[in-house]
## 1
Amino acid sequence: MNAHQAIFDQLGFAYDSDNIYYQTITSVLNATDVVGMEDSLELILAQPKNEVMVHFPVKMDDGHYELFKGYRVQHNNVLGPYKGGIRYHHDVGLDHIKALAVLMTMKCALVRLPYGGAKGGVKVDPRALSREELTRLTRRFTSAISNVIGPDYDIPAPDVGTNAQTMAWMADTYMNLNEPKQRRGGLGVVTGKPMEFGGSLGRSKATGQGVVFVLEELLPELDLNCADLSFSLIGYGNVGSWTGKLLCERGAKLKAVLDHTGAIANEDGLNAVALDEHVAQQGGVAGFSGGEHITDDQFYESSVDLLIPAALEQMIGPNIANQVQCQVIVEAANAPVTPAGDRVLTERGITVLPAILCNCGGVTVSYFEWKQNRQAETWDLEVVDRLLKKYLIMAARRVRLAAQRYNCDLRTAAYCVALDYIRQVYEYRGIFP
Ligand code: NAD
């Protein structure tokens, strides 16, 4: 029986311990207990404010039409406009998107960004579509959700399966749907755009850069140093490749990488830049000449200081948590460790650095991009990096202090920081009417 069953009963949730939304909201509610949050706020946060589901047709290259399912879930906007990525993946579903939207609310509150949390996506395998099909799908999806997004209301960004080009198509579609005289203001409707079209310097590397800033702040107390550690990565997309390249620049050794095409390893260290070029050409790490192919089991059993999941959710359950040979798990991906996996890691004395802290660099630089769009400015990379570092160091310190204050693990501590802040804002604002 879940400790929060009364809330779940009231909301009509069916018990399912494998369901990612159930898992995510349970972790958040564990923290609401720690901070002693009022029942009314627990209830509000336990469900998103809005869940939008759309079905839209797209003409494929051979002339036939396919119907796609898309989502935009807006969890909470007490701190400001909704903010969160758009995912293109064949496994996208409502509960998945709801869970990711909750994490965005927590992340923005932890970093003190003036945003609430949202997430969206389309159930599609983007690798199976041509560029023209992806353009039409993105434009039609944007038009389908255009009445629930906007630069002052809900601001999407890239996530798994989407990138700066996707954001450019979204912004252009949204701007064209607006009155001509208001078009320019529409630029801030999405972040993570290409530099040439309203993007920010430092946005593409921001999530990986944030991971590294957080590690530099927190690793010394675990007797680890970025200049002298070994690590492995699950996923070598935007977040994984930037984390890999930036950690290697600091002297760390990348020993193994696993992605959807297979796993590779090199005891002397993989060349992160060459691997990035290989993935850009081949679509995955398989076949990289600078390492040898290994099995998934060999990957998880490789001995490293840090294992950094930077791919999908729920990848580290209890079995893999028992297999891994590392001192620290750095959650660069969202929710990569299940609650059951978490329990095994705790028993084994493996520290988990939580996602809402580790990967908040992306939304932080998205905020800088949005500010630049509003002010019609372009900031230097040095300014972006300096501010990002400041925001992330402050967030990491808040989490460390909360862990001491509440005598809890770092995941619960990160949620406590976010929830304390959200509660204060609710206290000032009240619950309408
Ligand atoms: P991406 O699409 O660029 O890369 C995803 C990676 O996951 C790819 O390397 C892919 O091969 C790998 N992958 C997919 N299925 C896999 C499987 N079954 N086994 C192993 N690897 C698999 O996505 P991304 O933008 O790098 O996002 C990665 C994670 O980081 C997600 O959880 C995302 O929500 C989170 N995140 C991303 C950002 C951002 O700015 N892009 C910000 C915050 C959090």
## 2
Amino acid sequence: MYKSILLPIDLSAPASWSQSLPAARHMMGEGGTLHVLTVVPDFGMSVVGSFFEKGFEKKALRQVGEKLAAWVGSNVEEGIDVHPHVTHGRVYEQIINAADKLNVDAIVIAAHTPELADYLLGPNAARVVRHAKQSVFVVRGS
Ligand code: ADP
């Protein structure tokens, strides 16, 4: 059993939780804590920032926070100790930082979206496996 698990999800891709959420729930057993993280991606190009109006980032984080709260409400059973988190930045870096900061025991991550079926691991999942200090459980879709 793992006492606390980080489940990173892409809210626009149901494949990022359809099988990893049940896996995480199973690994937590009854008394654990589930941290769900969604990252508003920053593509690492400062030029992109200049296209957006000031305050865009705050607004985006707030809107995504509302979506994530709704996701928790409809996907996680009542009574589970679940904590939603929204951050902004490079996806894999944010996942790794959150795992350290939240001091989780394990990260449960889906391997990739179905569109990338030729790859066994998507770019973010691969980097998390390579760089995270915690155990990483990669859930492969069918
Ligand atoms: P793909 O490019 O096929 O989506 P990724 O490696 O980006 O492959 O995605 C694998 C997993 O990484 C997702 O299932 C999810 O767990 C995590 N992930 C991807 N994007 C995000 C995001 N924006 N926020 C949080 N987690 C994410």
